[in-house]
Each structure stands twice: as structure tokens, then as C-alpha cells.
Input
Amino acid sequence: MKFYSVLAASALLMSASAQATVVFSNNFDAENGGASALNYNSFNGLNSTGARYVDLVASGDYGITCAGGSGSCVDLDGTPGPGTLSSASSYAFSAGDLITLSFAISGNQRGYGADDWTAALNFASTTDITEWGVSVNGTTFAGGSGLADAISFSQAAWTTDFPFVDFTLFARTGNAGSVSFSFATNSADNVGPLLDNVSLDISSAVPEPATWAMMIGGFALVGAAMRRRVATVSFA
Ligand SMILES: [Ca+2]
Ligand SMILES: [Ca+2]
Output
């Protein structure tokens, strides 16, 4: 009986996500033919602005392993940094849409101490945010609501031994508009946080109240499973 209810919750989660629209996705694996490039700025759909460059790293080069153990990823601190990486385009949303920026990020396995990093959703004009927050390895933390020109999450002292963590930064909007996104670090020693698997999703899916109840059951199961993992990783 319990097994059956878990399956039902999973099915609802899948039908909800099927209505989602991925408007941007880059796992960096196809950039530069799969080869590393310092101060790379020919990304598909992304710009490394001004002199704040980032490095493209093929997994295995410089003692760095990307998310999933293969392909390529980005060292947010270029040569020299600090670096920023921003979406080249803005993406339109409608009132009530849920905007989700997903990415994997780790400390730099080369060492060189802890760094700060920030991920942001930047709105073209002041936007009514009805709810926003972050999700870390599947556990959600509420950020609140209000009028905003940008929503950002900043992580201080991201130590070099942090493994890749799946983050999402999300916002539900009360009015239509357009949004871009950006990543930045304060690292300036050529060795910074590693970024991988970036995607932006804009979804108009609003579940029925009855569906919500069952989805919360599903999320609770995920949260319980993930809490133990997160507990070993401190987000102070
Ligand atoms: Ca990758
Ligand atoms: Ca650094």
C-alpha cells in the first residue's frame, strides 16, 4: 500500500515536469570541441563579460574532474579572474510562471583555499516575486516574496573539498517580463569554484490543489532522503 502511494506521487511529479519548458541548457561538454581553453569566451548562449574571464576545463585536465566525471565544466576564476558568466539573451515569462535556474557547482579540486560565489536571476524591470528560494540537492529553502530587480543567492567560503552539489534558484512571478541570469566569484588566484550543467526553465504549470497535496508527499520523501546527505555538507 505504501509502495503504491509512492508510485502515484512519482507519476504526478513526472506529469508536472513534462509541462516545463527548458529555454536554456549548457553542460559545456561540446564547447571548444571538448578541449580546455583558458579565458574562453565563445560559449553557446553565455558571455564572460569584460575582463572578468572564466576558464573552460575538460575533465581530467589540471587535476579537475567535472560533474559526472567526464565532459567539460567551467572554472569561474579565469586567468586571471575573478570571473563572471552571464546569459547572452533574456527570456520572456508570463504572470504566474515559475523560473528555475539549475546548476551544479563544486569547490576547485586543485585547492587554493575557499572562495565566494553568487548565482542571480536578473529581471529587465522590477518584478513582483510571489515566492522565491533555493533548492540544494533537492531540499528547498524559502527566500520570501516582494518586488525585485534581481534574485540572488550568495555562498561564502565555498571550500575546495566541496563535491558537486545540485542547486536551483527559483522565482514565481506576479507579472510578465524577461529575465537573464549570471554567475560570479570573488576568487582572484586563477583557481575558483567549478560550474557545470546550467539550465533555465520557465514553466507555466500550476498544479491543482489536490495534486499539490500528493506532490508534497513526494517531495517529503525526497527531502528525507537528501537531508542525511546534506547534513554531511555544511552550508554555513
Ligand atoms: Ca559538463
Ligand atoms: Ca580561489
Observations:
- Residues 209 and 215 are 10 Å apart (CA to CA).
- The longest strand covers residues 115-136.
